[in-house]
Amino acid sequence: MSLRYLPEHAEHALLALELARKETTHLRYTHRTLFAQPMDADWVKQLNSRDDLAEKVDAFVSRFGRLQDHLGEKLIPRFAALLGESPKSMLDVLAFAEKMQWIENAEIFIGARKLRNLLVHEYMSDAELFLQALLTAREAAKMLFDAVTAIEAEAVAVGILKANQPLAPV
Predict the structure, then answer these.
(1) Is residue 30 within 8 Å of 56, Cβ to Cβ?
(2) Whole-angstrom Cα distance, residue 118 to residue 49?
(3) Is residue 124 situated within a structural domain?
(4) 85 in a domain, yes or no?
């Protein structure tokens, strides 16, 4: 019999996956409700006077950043360790994730990380730039959702998780 994963890393990998699932659920909700409305530069300009819109954008930006950080700093490295890999840098982590087909493209993932700075400040000064960053983040969020789904499928494939199995609360 050959090992498909290193058992000593299973618990940490599953905990990271559970947190990613929760973060994904929250980001999906915000993604769905925020992008259900038509957006243009005038909509962005309303953010200064419409607290309800600004709050929704802030929730999206926060959840987007948290899920992205969690993927790069916890989930992917823990699943790499589970499979016997030990990437050292963020570039190594993303290269491994790309090799495993958990993310489509490491450069796109890195580019999405740069969106946060634009999303945090730009609606205060440049409505068009902020709109483009927000629309780009809408697509990048789908990439994050796909990554969590792919890693969840990996957990099933190696046998530490059954399909559609709920995980223990974190």
Answers:
(1) yes
(2) 19
(3) yes
(4) yes
Task: Please state, in angstroms and rounded to a whole number, the distance separating the CA atoms of residues 144 and 104.
Answer: 10
Let me know if 121 is exposed, middle or buried by CB neighbors in 10 A (0-12, 13-18, 19+).
Answer: exposed
139-149 confidence digits (pLDDT tens) = 999 999 999 99
The pTM for the full model equals 0.92
Tally of structural domains, the chain: 1
Identify whether the C-beta of residue 138 lies closer than 8 Å to the C-beta of residue 101. no
Domain with 120, as residue range(s), is: 8-158
What distance separates the 2 farthest-apart alpha carbons in the chain? Answer: 64
Residue 15: inside a domain, yes or no?
yes
Q: What does the block give as tokens for 20?
A: 């990613």
Which pLDDT value is given to residue 122?
A: 60
Pairwise CA distance, residues 110 & 170, whole Å: 28
Q: How far, in Å, CA of 13 to CA of 170, rounded?
A: 12
Is 166 inside a domain boundary?
no
What are the pLDDT digits (tens) for 59-108?
999 999 999 999 999 999 999 999 999 999 999 999 999 999 999 999 99
